[in-house]
Amino acid sequence: MTFVLSAVGVSAQDNGLNPVYKVQLTDITYQKNEVKKKVTVGKVLSVMADVVEGRVTDINNEEYIPLARNRVMEGLTHVRRLQVVEDSEASDAKYQVSAVLTDIAATRKVKAYDRKDSKGREYTETKTYYGAIASVALHFTNLQTGEVTTSTLSGRCSEYSLARSADEAIRSALDELSDNIYEYYNECYPIRANIIERGIEKKDKTKELYIDVGSRFIGEDIHFDVFVVGQVAGRETRKQIGRIRVRETLGDDISLCKVQKGGKEIKAAFDRGDAIVAISTD
């Protein structure tokens, strides 16, 4: 699977702080038997070694490659600063990203439980549990510098979920993989907003405020950390002073936010005339 990323021109709806990158998805490859005992990618997911036990051998995992490709595409589509495009739209590539499915595996565990019926007679009940794992390695190559950055992301369906078959477990793991892709890359490419106006204030605290990013990039309930911005030796400095949540998007480039933390510090920064910015956390 190959992605090509290139910068998209800043639109009139953007505040200039959030360049968007084009993503071209072509093919996907699958390399068997490369599962690791533990895969950790930032805050995304930790996959434990117990998925290796009891592997289901009567499933052709390669049949899931088209579905895996769709889930990777879906994950990238939901990244706020990535734009999935057709081949004809790819130009001025900055990154080339190859992706390899390193594992699609199902597990089956059968457990026996000692039971008693209504008359006190003992019997053994068996239950079958299905789990699965789906992992993909994404290799970002900077075409200008040649630098390569690799991220391995995984989705997992627990053996103790409600999956009734290996097929259902694999599909559930691929769904989670899609979610983890966009959550991870939304953290890699956060949204940055200027705080442009104070809203409701009570006593010495700011309760609401407005930012210059709206429905073009975000929806309701997105969280931002709030910073006072300064300069030291020509470099930007940031000091965190609070946290906000988007209450309502009021247009392409404006949103009303509720202050969740640091209302007193934010009001003081407004009163001093400080430059205040917000950076998304999810």
Structural description of this entry:
- It is a single chain.
- The protein has 282 residues and is α+β, with helices and mostly antiparallel strands.
- Helices cover 16% and strands 46% of the residues.
- It has helices at residues 65-77, 166-188, 263-272; strands at 2-8, 20-24, 29-30, 39-40, 46-47, 82-85, 95-116, 122-142, 148-157, 192-198, 201-202, 205-206, 208-211, 223-232, 235-251, 254-261, 275-280.
- The strands form four sheets. Strands 1, 2, 3, 6, 7, 8 and 9 form a seven-stranded mixed sheet that branches. The chain has a six-stranded antiparallel barrel with strand order 10-13-16-15-14-17. It has a two-stranded antiparallel sheet with strand order 4-5.
- Mean pLDDT is 81; it is low at 1-13 and 34-52.
* Broad structural category: alpha+beta
Q: Termini distance?
A: 26 Å
Helix-strand pattern, N to C? EEEEEHEEEEHEEEEEEEHE
Report the radius of gyration as a whole number of Å: 24 Å
Helix content: 10-25%
| Average pLDDT metric | 81
Please state the overall shape, judged from the principal axes of the Cα atoms. Answer: flat
Percentage of β-strand residues: over 45%
The unreliable regions are 1-13, 34-52
Could you give a short account of the major beta sheet? 7 strands, mixed
The strand count comes to 17
Tally of DSSP helical segments: 3
